[in-house]
Amino acid sequence: MRFLHLGDSHIGNVYKDYQRNEDIKDAFKQVIDAAINENVDFIVHSGDLFNEGNPALSDLLFVTDQLNRLRSTGIKIFIVPGSHDIGIGEEESIIELFDRNGLLVNLNAKRYVSFSGGEIALKGEVYRGAFICGVKGKRSRVEDEVFKKLKIEQSNENCLIKIFIFHHTISTLGEKFKDLDTESLPRGFDYYAAGHWHGHRDNIKYDRGIIQYPGSTEYCDEKEIVDNPNRGFYLVDFDESGIRNLEYRIIKTRGKELIELDSNGKTAVQIRDQIFSKLKHSDGNLLVIKLLGQMQGKKSELELLKIKNTAKDLGYSYVSINLSKLADKDDQSVEINSKDIADVEKEYLLKKGYDEMGLKMAEYLVSNFDSGKNPIDVKAGLNEIFRTYDNKKN
Ligand SMILES: [Mn+2]
Beta partners for 321? Predict the structure, then answer.
């Protein structure tokens, strides 16, 4: 028997860039191609099939088409909703729609989960020699509670291996990132199909099994482009003796180039010229430009659009220019008279020319920094502020 494990495919508007979102779809299609070509018995997806809980029609149609390809070749796909598949304030997720249409199996559909006496009883499926069950991702941090109450009704009938799907960042990956203690995971499984962490991590030993993070199927932001060497999924063979073979298969993604430029003491024109001198003709590569140091003049003089357009004309498919480590003359000292930290922040921002809405947003972001809130919720809060001030204007 053979199954394919992928996660975090994020179909949707990950980027503002149309081509990048198409790249994300292409990566997903490559995985479906592989599943069909490798004749797998089934697929396990560890959540974040979509990038948002209310995807655009074109994304819904794309996924429907790909899942129909699987259905027509008899390959079942088992999934739990990821944190991104669930809309803000929604009980159900977009995954449920596909389950009800018979295009996939949502292992957290109501028929698998029941609550009684402070316990959460979780059922799974036995399919082609594997028992498969899982727990969906959450939009807030720390969900150990669910795992503490979990009572899995495991079936041993015709079962060669046991697979547990989850969508959390476990403490083994680093305390800083964790939203679940590794030890909270249920015991007794052979393969823990993990999602949520976009980098890939193999062979984390746990109880009698292994925890596997395939990572996202495409780079979902500039940091992932820079940090991650490649994207991929797992092909797993098993028989009576358990897991027999495990392969990490790489997805074909675009080539990438990183230009880091020390901009200390340089003018916008000098910086731009230096960037231009480093660019060459490209066959659709991703380009990340990082500017460091204290430049002369203002960042706005860099004319980022001009740099981006020049790079695109040379054939780069995506250009990101990172100015977070670049200072300009406006970043030089501002005199502050306030004493209280909140007042210092406010005075600083006012002197920087922020308006009332900008101040509210900054205040909100600072108070939510490292709060453990999910970025989606923080974004919703920001939108709320935006709407409040936008309504005032109209
Ligand atoms: Mn994700």
Answer: 289
Residue 189 CA, ligand 1 centroid: distance in Å: 23
Listed by start position, the domains of the chain span: 2-251, 255-332, 333-394
Q: Which residue is listed with tokens 């394919």?
A: 4
Supply the DSSP string of 341-367, one letter for each residue.
HHHHHHHHHHHTT--HHHHHHHHHHHH
The pTM score is: 0.84
3-state secondary structure of 141: coil
CA atoms within 13 A on the CB side of 231: 28
Distance 394 CA to ligand 1 centre (A): 37
How many Å apart are CA 127 and CA 115, to the nearest integer?
Answer: 25
Q: In what order do the strands lie in the sheet with 119-122?
A: 113-116, 119-122, 150-152
Distance, CA 360 to ligand 1 centroid (Å)?
29
Residues 245-296 pLDDT 10s: 999 999 999 999 999 999 999 999 999 999 999 999 999 999 999 999 999 9
pLDDT digits (tens, 9 = 90+) for 148-194: 999 999 877 779 999 999 999 999 999 888 889 999 999 999 999 99
Ligand 1 centroid to Cα of residue 11, in Å, is 10
Q: Give distance in angstroms: CA of 6 to centre of ligand 1.
A: 11
pLDDT tens by residue, 37-95: 999 999 999 999 999 999 999 999 999 999 999 999 999 999 999 999 998 888 899 99
Q: How far is the CA of 84 from the centre of ligand 1 (A)?
A: 7
Pairing of strands 119-122, 191-195: unpaired
- Kindly state the tokens that stand for 9: 């495919």
Distance 177 CA to ligand 1 centre (A): 13
Whole-number Å distance, alpha carbon 200 to ligand 1 midpoint, is 12
Name the DSSP letter for residue 194.
E
Q: Ligand 1 centroid vs 220 CA: distance in angstroms?
A: 8
Distance 85 CA to ligand 1 centre (A): 9
2-251: CATH number: 3.60.21.10
Residue 48 Cα to ligand 1 midpoint, Å, equals: 5
For ligand 1, the distance from its centroid to the CA atom of residue 273, given in whole angstroms, is 37
**Two structure tokens written together for 180:** 């679940």
Q: Distance, CA 201 to ligand 1 centroid (Å)?
A: 14
User: In whole angstroms, what separates CA 145 from the centre of its chain?
Assistant: 23
Instruction: Kindly state the tokens that stand for 379.
Output: 């974004």
